[in-house]
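To fix ideas, we now present one chain and its tokenised fold:
***
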Amino acid sequence: MESLFLIFVILLERKTVESAESVRLVNGGSPCAGRVEVYHRGQWGTVGGYGKSYLYYTWNMKAAAVVCLELGCGAALSASMGSPFGSGSGVVVTCDVRCKGSESALRECPSWTWDHHRWSHSTDVGVICSGGNSPRLVNGSSHCVGRVELYTKESWGTVCGETLNMKIAGDICRYLGCGSAVSASGDARFGEGLGPVIGRPDCGHGKDGGIICSGGNPPRLVNGSSRCAGRVELHTKDTWGTLCGENLNMKIAEDICKYLGCGFALSASGSARFGEGLGPVIGRPDCGHGKDGGIICSGGNPPRLVNGSSRCAGRVELHTKDTWGTLCGENLNMKIAEDICKYLGCGFALSASGSARFGEG
């Protein structure tokens, strides 16, 4: 009789533990961000993002919302797969999770049988919750541009750029009512923040993540020879503003070119090469229009240098509107020439001229 009573107590204690703490977020620097782990039969394990056939994925924002609700961590900001917070160890408890979003706990969602599966951890899922407060983008002169900050443990913290990607950026932009993501960067382009760094435990503020959202309208490149070259402008507060060149680099330029369907980034400059704009300057608070950022995209085809002695010398031509056009010499400087040479695999730039030295196009 005593042995039966002991077994009953053990089962009751296990049931109590599993009901009291059945899900957690780990390796995210905050109890409200990280890799999703669930407690089952005395052991913590991860959740796979794939369906039963491994041919599709089922982890989504509805499932993330259930996890955030269960943990008391506010709203879901992002649902990610592919081990963004590192791969787990040990077992994978379940996969093929199909939440409706109205469940109060992840266990209530239909899924593959919970067990101690010895599956790959390559699709371990992760979640970022708001932490009780809406996220914010700071130091970008607009609520739709800036360093990503989340509220955790009664203070604001930043997001590690190594954890930030375009999928997560898109989720945050939509959550803030800021349209879609234009760019996601991880090198503290909007300055280093304070407080904890949410993401990877070994990540410092030098890798603080930043986001540029479309603001409800796609970005545009103006005052160039085509829609794929010009001064970067973003829509904010019912007006168009420029992007500070100090916040612009080739990674952000690449994202904008892809977003606009303009191929690859050839150059990113920050000295108002395409003229000074009007309206607010988005980026660093102390940045003026003299540093307005500009981009040259490939336009869908690589640039070419023509009428020179080799493919690495000549008149710069870009493909636009189903035809080849030239680049105005007033917009060409050594920085842009350097970018084009690197893009073409032609080493370093030796000269940049603007007086039709290689003939008129």
Observations:
- Residues 220-297 form a domain with the Mac-2 Binding Protein fold (CATH 3.10.250.10).
- The chain has five helices and 21 strands.
- The helical segments are 2-20, 61-71, 166-175, 250-259, 334-343.
